[in-house]
Amino acid sequence: MRHGCLFLSGLLLLVLLSTGFLFADEKTLKLESYVVDTFDGAGSAVHEDGEPIVWQIMGSKFSTEGYPRMQYVPGEWPDDLFGPNPENAEDLQVLGMNSRFDRMGYNQIEIIAGAGEGDSWEAKPIILPGRVKTVDLWVWGSRYKYSIEMHFLDYQGLAYRLDLIQSDNKRAVGSINFSGWKNMYLDIPNYIKQSVVYQPEFKGLRLTKIVIYTNPEENVNNFYVYLDHLKVLCDKHETYYDGFNLTSPERIEEIWGQGE
């Protein structure tokens, strides 16, 4: 009987220890939704330093002369996002692209994040907040067999290309072969590092561009694509410790003149 009690006590202790280890491995999350750009006109969003985000469009080798074209389109929005009659309808816009290519093939359109105007414009990646979990974007398609992806850089400058996925058709990876507005998203895989073991441990992910590809068997004479409401879901939890404020970019710049 005594041996039986000892056995049960040992088993109970093992279960408790195992449970404790499981709880210890859990990570605290502080998930927040953050709108990167509403596309409600030029300068509707800003970079981390406060400089307006200015998108530029660029076509690949066989783009027809004068194409691709890009402009903000007022009075348009996805009904599934804002409803058919939003109160601020007069303020809503979407980003439109119109393009043609001289031949079929793997042509592409790049919508590049940058800053500055005219000849002073230069590509400038958007530093995304927190540890990004998911990115989503509203895309208007017109049944062309094209695909869409996003390009990112990590803190080491390594580049990644990730396909967007239709939120209601997860098998259609990257495809914009649909009619009208759809929400598309991508999950940031764990192999893309967004932190280090040193302080400050957070290392932001940067979005460089959105790319649309044509299918080599699809018509490329004249087509339109519209984008709206670029958003991320990110984890902004940071473990507090004595002297935590010395790792903030603002404090580093105040002390040393510039951040890392």
List keywords for this structure.
single chain, 260 residues, mainly beta, 8-stranded antiparallel sheet, 7-stranded antiparallel sheet, 39% strand, globular
Detailed description of the structure:
By secondary structure, the protein is mainly β. It has one domain: Galactose-binding domain-like (Jelly Rolls, Sandwich). Helix content is 14%, strand content 39%. The chain contains 3 helices and 15 strands. Strands 1, 3, 4, 8, 11, 12, 13 and 15 form an 8-stranded antiparallel β-sheet that branches. A hairpin with a 5-residue loop joins strand 9 and strand 10. It is globular and about 60 Å long. About 6% of the residues have low confidence.
Described by the principal axes of the CA atoms, the overall outline is globular
CATH superfamily: Galactose-binding domain-like
- How many helix segments? 3
CATH class: Mainly Beta
Which quaternary structure do these chains form?
Answer: single chain
**CATH architecture annotation name:** Sandwich
Q: What is the topology?
A:
Elements: H1 2-25, E1 31-37, E2 54-59, E3 69-74, H2 79-82, E4 93-99, E5 108-115, E6 122-123, E7 126-127, E8 131-142, E9 146-153, E10 159-163, E11 165-166, E12 169-173, E13 179-187, E14 206-214, E15 223-235, H3 249-256
Entry summary:
This protein has 260 residues and is mainly beta. Helix content is 14%, strand content 39%.
